[in-house]
């Protein structure tokens, strides 16, 4: 009986040491690095940051098609912009707020000027 307790104790100790070493290796020596993640896979806080960057880029280059394509990766562009204030954990800067409002106006005006079903 004593031999089994020693074996079980050694197995338990080995599992705990292996788990600890694996944790340290995975956390500090070879941590996971995410590269080229789709915007839809980001944490909601980073999605909000992405939307703000798209809006700020739109105010700089005025490329509505590119801004729409970038926002489509998160869903309907108008709904994404309208839902941003509720999903952004950090305060939105006044510059970003005006950029978002400007982009939202442009998206709404372009969607009302196109015939139903999109461009031919």
Number of helices: 5
What global shape is seen?
rod-shaped
Tell me roughly what share of residues is in helical segments. Answer: over 70%
Class from helix and strand fractions: mainly alpha
Query: What are the low-pLDDT stretches, counting only 5+ consecutive residues below 50?
Result: none
Number of strands: 0
Please tell me about this protein's structure.
The protein has 120 residues and is mainly alpha-helical. It has 2 domains: 1-33; 39-113, no CATH class. Helices cover 72% and strands 0% of the residues. The protein is built from 5 helices and no strands. It has helices spanning 2-29, 44-61, 64-72, 77-87, 94-113. The relative contact order is 0.10. The mean pLDDT is 88.
Q: What is the topological layout?
A:
Elements: H1 2-29, H2 44-61, H3 64-72, H4 77-87, H5 94-113
How would you summarize this macromolecular structure in one to three sentences?
The chain is mostly helical. It is built from five helices and no strands.
């Amino acid at each position: 009986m004593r031999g089994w307790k020693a074996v079980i104790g050694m197995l338990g100790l080995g599992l705990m040491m292996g788990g600890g070493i694996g944790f340290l290796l995975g956390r500090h020596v070879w941590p996971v690095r995410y590269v080229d993640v789709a915007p839809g896979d980001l944490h909601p806080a980073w999605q909000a940051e992405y939307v703000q960057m798209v809006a700020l880029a739109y105010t700089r280059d005025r490329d509505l098609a590119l801004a729409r394509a970038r926002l489509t990766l998160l869903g309907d562009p108008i709904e994404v912009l309208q839902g941003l204030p509720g999903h952004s954990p950090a305060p939105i800067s006044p510059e970003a707020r005006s950029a978002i409002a400007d982009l939202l106006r442009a998206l709404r005006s372009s969607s009302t000027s196109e015939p139903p079903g999109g461009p031919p």
